[in-house]
Specification:
The chain has 422 residues and is α+β, with helices and mostly antiparallel strands. It folds into two domains: 38-278, no CATH class; 290-421, no CATH class. The chain has 14 helices and twelve strands. The strands form three sheets. It has a seven-stranded antiparallel sheet, covered by helices on one side. It has a three-stranded mixed sheet with strand order 1-3-2. The chain is globular, with a radius of gyration of 25 Å. It starts with a helix and ends with a strand.
Length: 422
């Protein structure tokens, strides 16, 4: 019997759809660990997950959302979902960030930021997205107690945390993340202290960092220089100290209050200096000067603005890459605000960074420290500017003012401060 044309088309369509699902299913299955331990792995994971939820609610005296889902991902699945493309960092944006980092001698000329995010994702042990928690099969072992349950406590903290305001700059985003990650790290450590039937212990930050990012200690994180790793780990290391201080000063209520809009830390300076946070000090609003040549095209920041702010910790890491830790801390602590912009014209780029300091003395100290850094990296001085690796750089400071201006470009004609206007 001949099948009617319409029916035949529907059958063919159904078969096609089923074939696609079978192929996709096979691909998915091939990505997942296929061994006799998988069922036991998932059973143990679910067991400690249920206990972790109870432990979290008891410690924090709160109620978690009822619908929290738990998944097991391979590293490749994590990379596919949260890798470079998912962060919106196309090749052009990566190159722009490289230009800035190399201009400020944060990374070597032969180093690249390409692949950094994928390596970062591959180092995760677990991640939370809304009410969903994903553990990375290769990096997470559910029988490693109490560490395995501490990881889940960490992620449950993120599930519970209140949403913070949308960050407006690099520095603000780092401060927000320090609160979020610092709280999660603290909770994990607090749980482990209770698990070991002892009073609250002061676990070294490196203990939980190595737990959350084991690959960092396995020498398989090749795309990230020490400076970039330090910047990435700020939220965990310094965030834990910040949260510890909050709790020491006012217990869980003080920590919970820090999530309210008027109490959220808004600069890395708040995380580094508790007195500035408690005093409610805010960064000075700074404008980056604009080139009078309007052929330069200003590139919007990752936060949608035409300028961005790096903050105190970034200044510290930049200087500490070449100067002593004490010197870098002392100079960076004078930071009061900054603003930078990135421009392009044809094949050239222009980086403009205006930093305001708390005093003229602090501005002078930074000028001296930055010049010392340039001498150490053997930047080639040529009159009023330095030249190295195809980039021209100037640092200007008026002794009567509290601001310093850094200009860097592949075009020598634009690095004259007189060619800029506010």
């Amino acid at each position: 019997m001949e099948i009617a044309t319409g029916v035949k088309q529907k059958i063919i369509g159904v078969i096609t759809v089923l074939t696609i699902f079978i192929i996709l299913g096979a691909l998915f299955i091939s990505e997942r660990p296929q061994n006799s331990e998988l069922l036991a792995y998932e059973a143990q994971l679910q067991k400690i997950f249920e206990d972790a939820k109870n432990q979290f609610e008891y410690i924090r005296n709160v109620t978690l959302p009822s619908e929290i889902k738990l998944f097991v991902y391979t590293k490749q699945q994590a990379i596919d979902r949260w890798g470079e493309d998912s962060f919106g960092l196309d090749a052009s944006n990566v190159l722009r960030q490289e230009n800035i980092y190399k201009s400020l001698f944060l990374i070597e000329e032969n180093e690249s930021l390409d692949g950094v995010i994928m390596d970062w994702v591959a180092s995760w042990t677990a991640v939370s997205v809304g009410n969903e928690i994903y553990v990375i099969y290769e990096n997470y072992w559910p029988w490693d107690m109490p560490n395995a349950e501490a990881v889940l406590i960490h992620e449950l903290t993120h599930v519970w945390q209140a949403a913070l305001p949308v960050p407006t700059s690099y520095d603000v985003n780092r401060a927000y993340n320090a609160l979020l990650e610092g709280d999660a790290v603290y909770m994990a450590d607090y749980y482990k202290a209770q698990y070991n039937n002892s009073t609250r212990l002061n676990y070294a930050n490196s203990l939980f960092i190595s737990l959350v990012f084991p690959q960092l200690n396995a020498a398989v994180y090749p795309s990230v220089s020490d400076t970039v790793s330090t910047l990435n780990l700020f939220s965990y290391t310094y965030g834990k100290s910040f949260v510890s201080t909050l709790i020491d000063n006012g217990g869980w209520d003080q920590l919970n209050q820090s999530y309210l809009f008027e109490y959220v830390p808004s600069a890395t300076a708040h995380i580094l200096h508790f007195d500035k946070y408690f005093a409610g000090e805010t960064a000075i609003f700074v404008l980056a000067p604009i080139p009078v040549d309007n052929n330069w095209v200003r590139i919007p920041s990752s936060y949608g603005y035409l300028s961005d702010t790096y903050g105190e910790f970034f200044v510290y890491v930049m200087l500490n890459n070449w100067l002593s830790d004490s010197k870098a801390q002392e100079v960076a602590s004078g930071w009061a605000g900054d603003s930078f912009s990135y421009y392009e014209k044809d094949c050239d780029f222009l980086f403009v960074w205006n930093i305001t300091w708390s005093s003229t003395e602090c501005a002078s100290e930074f000028t001296q420290a930055f010049s010392e850094m340039l001498n150490i990296v053997q930047a080639n001085p040529q009159g009023d500017f330095w030249f190295t690796n195809g980039r021209y750089l100037t640092l200007s400071w008026n002794p009567n003012e509290k601001s310093t201006l850094i200009l860097c470009s592949t075009d020598q004609t634009v690095i004259d401060p007189s060619l800029f206007t506010c």
